[in-house]
Amino acid sequence: MTVLLGCIADDFTGGTDLAGMLVKAGMRTVQLIGVPTEPIADDVDAVVIALKSRTSPVDQAVSESLAALRWLQSAGCKQIYFKYCSTFDSTPRGNIGPVTEALMTALGAEFTIACPAFPANGRTIYKGYLFVGEMLLSESGMRNHPLTPMTDSNLVRVMQQQTERKVGLVDSAVVDQGAAAIGERIAGLRERGYGLAIVDALSDVHLESIGAACADMPLITGGSGIALGLPENFRRRGLLSRTVAADVLAATGGLRAVISGSCSVATQRQVALMRASFPAFKIDPLLLARGEDLVSAALDWAGGRIGKQPVLIYATATPETVKQAQLELGAEQAGGLVENALAEIAKGLVRLGVGQMIVAGGETSGAVVNALGIKGLRIGPEIDPGVPWTTTLPHDASVQPLALALKSGNFGSEDFFLKAWDKLQ
Ligand SMILES: Nc1ncnc2c1ncn2[C@@H]1O[C@H](COP(=O)(O)OP(=O)(O)O)[C@@H](O)[C@H]1O
Ligand SMILES: O=C(O)[C@@H](O)C(=O)COP(=O)(O)O
């Protein structure tokens, strides 16, 4: 088996976002949860190893990323991709800079790019400044993120704080001119001692040009956007088929459920719409803290209702309600209580016969995937930009695959929880 592209993602939903982009562009892709201990299937063009390293201590993020790199190198990968968030989520110390630097050193890479742009989801970069929709990153909701508040939109500055290597810029005027011009600018930067460049991108055409310009780089770093242009590089070299369908999943069946622990604006709208016409059960961290057995209550409730239509179990709440819970319990304890409860509920739902499940929220997805003991996911068709359907890789041939959609808090249209099922066979 030779895997063409090896990817390291700093969280689980970010991993499926990237994997979905690769599948959309024609690469058969699996996402592995952590560094695998067992061999993977032969029919795979790209592997994403999903870590939970976005906010872990720098040393831990670096050592886990290097362990992932070693596995990807042993699988024969021709190029390595480090995936982080399209809003460049990181603390001033890292982990984007230190992990990038460690991967560059291990790969002997003298230069790489950093490009979190994802225009389809409103993340664009202009003159090195990251925009979220109409707003600068530092004016968006990300300025209040509990773990990685982003208060500077200038990515050259942000990245330079996190790395010893000199950080430059490939601006949109150059990117507009296409791959050859980007390559020339990069060569110029390298001559002047730069080791990294933030690359502007405002459109998918830009992403494709950037992908083409990076064909020979041992390491690429970014959000999922620039993955759009990479498969074509492998096709041009005759390494990737133009005809094999990449998004085919094993058939799944069973009951349907949505679990939501995300309190992001997009998820709040999605939960409100689903609650209006489907059975819904709310998880309140304050009741959990008082020792109420909401896991059994939710499963008893679901057992009586779940059938032809999906059910929703959610902790999603407004910022005021979340703040109140955090004041009483502490942010970490409130989050942990909810994550544990939702993960136990996910296990119970599978026992009840759920075979198709949507999970909303990055941390929530991590908790659910770990509780279900999932080792890997085969990536299928896109539901909305950044969110594909996946099916669990069988760890035992007798176990039916589970269809899972791991939705980043900020992704997906308002009717995401209603329409997603139509994309399953
Ligand atoms: N009602 C609530 N009160 C306090 N914390 C909550 C509540 N609902 C969810 N949470 C916590 O908020 C965090 C949401 O993070 P996450 O799942 O990553 O979503 P997103 O992708 O939107 O950031 C989780 O730790 C979750 O347990
Ligand atoms: O690049 C992105 O925006 C996403 O793939 C991502 O990483 C989102 O993280 P969460 O919001 O924590 O799910």
What does this structure look like?
The two termini are 28 Å apart. The longest helix is centred in the C-terminal third of the chain and has 22 residues, at 331-352. The chain folds into two domains: 5-236, Putative sugar-binding, N-terminal domain (Rossmann fold); 255-423, 3-Layer(aba) Sandwich (Molybdenum Cofactor Biosythetic Enzyme, Chain A). The radius of gyration is 21 Å and the shape is globular. The protein has 425 residues and is an alpha/beta fold. The strands form two sheets. The chain has a 15-stranded mixed sheet, sandwiched between helices. A three-stranded antiparallel sheet has the order 6-7-8, with no helix packed on it. It contains 15 helices and 18 strands. The protein has helices spanning 12-24, 58-74, 96-107, 155-162, 172-176, 179-191, 204-213, 230-236, 265-277, 285-289, 294-305, 319-329, 331-352, 362-371, 416-419, and strands at 5-9, 29-33, 46-50, 79-83, 112-115, 123-126, 129-132, 135-136, 166-170, 194-199, 219-222, 255-260, 280-282, 311-314, 354-360, 376-384, 387-392, 403-407. Adenosine-5'-diphosphate binds at residues 261-264, 267, 285, 315, 317, 321-322, 325-326, 334-335, 338-339, 361-364, 408-409. Residues 11, 13-14, 17, 85-87, 223-224, 362, 386, 408-410 line the site of ligand LB5GJZVW.
Break the fold down into its secondary structure elements and pairings:
Elements: E1 5-9, H1 12-24, E2 29-33, E3 46-50, H2 58-74, E4 79-83, H3 96-107, E5 112-115, E6 123-126, E7 129-132, E8 135-136, H4 155-162, E9 166-170, H5 172-176, H6 179-191, E10 194-199, H7 204-213, E11 219-222, H8 230-236, E12 255-260, H9 265-277, E13 280-282, H10 285-289, H11 294-305, E14 311-314, H12 319-329, H13 331-352, E15 354-360, H14 362-371, E16 376-384, E17 387-392, E18 403-407, H15 416-419
Parallel strand pairs: 1-3, 1-4, 2-3, 4-11, 5-10, 5-11, 9-10, 12-14, 12-15, 13-14, 15-18
Antiparallel strand pairs: 2-16, 6-7, 7-8, 16-17, 17-18
Helix pairs in contact: 2-3, 6-7, 11-13, 12-13, 13-14
The site of adenosine-5'-diphosphate has 22 residues, from helix 12, helix 13 and helix 14.
